[in-house]
Write a structure and sequence with these properties.
The chain has 18 helices and five strands. By secondary structure, the chain is α/β, with parallel strands linked by helices. The chain has a single domain, classed as 3-Layer(aba) Sandwich (Rossmann fold), CATH 3.40.50. The longest helix is centred in the last third of the chain and has 16 residues, at 212-227.
């Protein structure tokens, strides 16, 4: 069984230990391949980064990028603040990790904006896709995810012991300590990617709504330019749309947009909007 198919096996996809173990096990071989790779290989097969604000469609975007011709998926993920520790990695440390990415590799990421990280991707000729979402949906989704889905996240034990959704929402908004600060401090470091040169910004609401085909066409066009490919745009768009299957994502619960309005009382929704005003303005959801 090919490594990528093994990662997609139902048993593996349900187990964080198996997924991370398999990814770690292939690192030595990936490093050897990287050492033997000439710089010219990246011009023909640029890596693709599916970067995102957490809980904004990371795995949806990965399903799309993995369907690009000649892509390779090793299960690798690069985060500024890994969920297990929430210790912030420096731009230098992140740049070293980015430098290990192989030609044609597609991988997920939760990377804060920084000029150093942008330059590290640029050196590989990478296609950088950045997906983001209404911060109110991000926060309401996060409260459920941390309480019930990701027991390996540093914050899981704190969310799990809380008595109700209101208490979990308060923790998500107020934060806990320097590793898990208040909500705007967690969201705003990503906002710089929206206007960064060379980045393809994607709104989750557009990628899952009526504009889906148009958004995927933007991805295809950027990919063709980055790698000099001449594949048919229409054929590639159809191929990428067909690859979307939310049920295959181990982080998926129900998706959708604007769910924060339906899950909260009117006063809670108003308070959420008020607290997240800096993020709403930075990401373009303040209207």
């Amino acid at each position: 069984m090919a490594f990528e198919n093994l990662l997609d096996h139902a048993v593996v996809s349900r187990s964080a230990i198996l997924r991370k173990g398999l990814t770690f096990a292939q690192e030595p071989m990936a490093l050897l391949k990287r050492l033997a790779t000439p710089p010219s290989a990246y011009h023909a097969r640029p890596p693709v980064f599916a970067n995102s604000v957490p809980k904004s469609g990371t795995h949806l975007l990965l399903q799309i990028t993995r369907a690009l011709p000649c892509s390779r998926y090793l299960g690798r993920f690069i985060a500024t603040c890994p969920s297990l520790t929430l210790r912030e990695r420096s731009p230098v440390a992140l740049s070293r990790r980015i430098a290990k990415v192989l030609p044609g590799e597609t991988l997920g990421a939760h990377l804060y904006y920084s000029a150093e990280v942008a330059e590290a991707m640029s050196r590989l000729g990478a296609l950088h896709l950045f997906i983001y979402r209404d911060p109110r949906d991000v926060i309401t989704s996060e409260t459920f995810y941390l309480a019930q889905m990701n027991r390996w996240h540093r914050m899981h034990k704190y969310f799990k012991k809380l008595p109700d959704n209101a208490a979990r929402l308060a923790l998500s908004l107020d934060g806990l300590d320097e590793r898990y600060p208040e909500a705007n401090a967690r969201l705003l470091p990503y906002a710089g990617w929206i206007r960064a040169p060379g980045v393809v910004p994607i709104r989750y609401e557009d990628l899952t709504g009526e504009c889906q085909a148009k958004e995927i066409e933007r991805i295809v066009e950027a990919w063709r330019v980055q790698g000099g490919r001449t594949d048919s745009i229409d054929d590639l768009v159809a191929r990428l749309i067909a690859a979307i299957d939310p049920e295959r994502s181990h982080t998926f619960r129900e998706g959708g947009t604007g769910k924060w309005r339906r899950r909260l009382t009117e006063s809670e929704a108003e308070a959420l909007t008020s607290r997240l005003r800096p993020s709403l303005e930075a990401f373009g959801y303040a209207k």
